[in-house]
Amino acid sequence: MTQTSYDYDLFVIGGGSGGVRAARLAAQMGRRVAVAEYDDLGGTCVNRGCVPKKLMVYAGEYAEHFEDAAGYGWTVGETTFDWDVLKRNRDAEVRRLNGIYGANLEKAGVDIFRDIAVFDDAHTIRLVNADRTVTADKVLIAVGGYPNPHGALEGHELCVTSDAAFDLAELPKKIIIAGGGYIAIEFACIFNALGVDVTVLYRGLEILQHFDMDVRRLLHAELENKGIKIITKTVFEKVERKDGGGLRAALSDGSFWEGDQIMLALGRLPNTEKIGLDKAGVQMDRKGCVLVDEHLKTSADNIYALGDVIDRVPLTPVAIHEAMCFIETVFKGNPTQPDYVNIPTAVFSHPQIATVGMPEDEARKNLENFDVYKTIFRPMRNILAGRPDRMLIKLVVDADDDTVVGAHILGPEAGEMAQLIGIAIKACVKKAQFDATMAVHPTAAEELVTMYEPNYRFRKGEKVAA
Predict the structure, then answer these.
(1) Which one, of 10, 13, 3, 5, lies nearest residue 277 by Cα?
(2) Is the bond leading into 388 cis (omega within 30 degrees of zero)?
């Protein structure tokens, strides 16, 4: 089959943020492009992830705002919360974004197939519901992932995943969430703020693996202060329905938990099981993630993959960045590798986390000499409110060249700080430049530029006094 006989120059399987960006950019270059997506456009982020979750975070924050207002002289009357109203308004916003994604693709001239797409071979895509095939010169796999149902757990079918948590018919009175990653912690904070009795169950030693340990420990303490129960080094052994209603879970420490909802937030799996990758000659790893080279090319010469399905950095902005690299490489003749160094990240827990660069534990493994600057304090906004919540700001500095290699923040609006501090870390700013920057007073963020002396140092791998 010659290139001119293909139906499309590019066929994208998956209508999430990465797939849509690649399709739209290619179409704007005059290429014949199609996208197949059986679900709503926007992928996990728009439909069952970042966007609806952040709206629910906002909803939960109002509970503390009402409480804190008294310290500032406001009298707030009786407050009530309506789960159905939140769901209805949240879903309306998601539908609006779905429409924008579709309109942008159509404006660019992309054909949209609302269908399940599978490979017949490397250049042939079968649209299952329409029972027809189309051909393409290049194919981009951007199918994302789905929550791990943890099928080995007896009674797992009685539990909900992070996807299903958005659609609960009513707000639970008591929930236990299995998992210690950012999805589990964010949902724990959302439900807690909305008045739910929340327990977090995690098999590890401390929540939020891979984050800086000071952040992890302080967040753990702050969550428990808010009434969230955290059980570590423990897993479910069995889940069953109680005769009188509700659920009962047996835990590996010999205890039992009873309540009305159990949520499994135990990682995500790639959506590769039933799309015919073997027919296309596309290789996967043992977890089912698509294997790609440094330019996102799979083992099939004309097929590429990006986003959560390749198991690199499962974040929406990363998938979009990968899409732009794909366009540069494949359609502009400018081979471009994705850059995964110093990616700023926010966790919309309560309090929030911002992190970019090396945690201290990583610095211990990779740097001989480094300094640690950190401060823990009550932010000004909490003083009149009488709220005990603390804030942490921490910098990790390479002592050999004074480069700030890590920044970690726990506190109000940390997510907004993540973007700004990310620019500085990406630019390899020196600690001396932090020190030379005028503070913005009074703000919590001014601590970033007023920590002049390290709390402690590491020299030749050994911790020494500052």
Answers:
(1) 13
(2) no
> Mind listing the pLDDT tens digit for each residue in 4-25?
699 999 999 999 999 999 999 9
Average pLDDT over residues 159-180: 97
pLDDT in tens, 231-250: 999 999 999 999 989 999 99
pTM of the model: 0.96
> Which residue in the block uniquely carries the two structure tokens 């399905």?
309
Question: Residues 6 or more apart from 286 whose CB is under 8 A from it?
Answer: none
Catalytic residue ranges: 441
Give the closest residue to 11 by CA, choosing from 29, 32, 30, 25. Answer: 32
Buried residues in 118-150 as b, exposed as e (16+ CB within 10 A): bbeebbbbbbeeeeeebbbbbbbbbbbbbbbeb
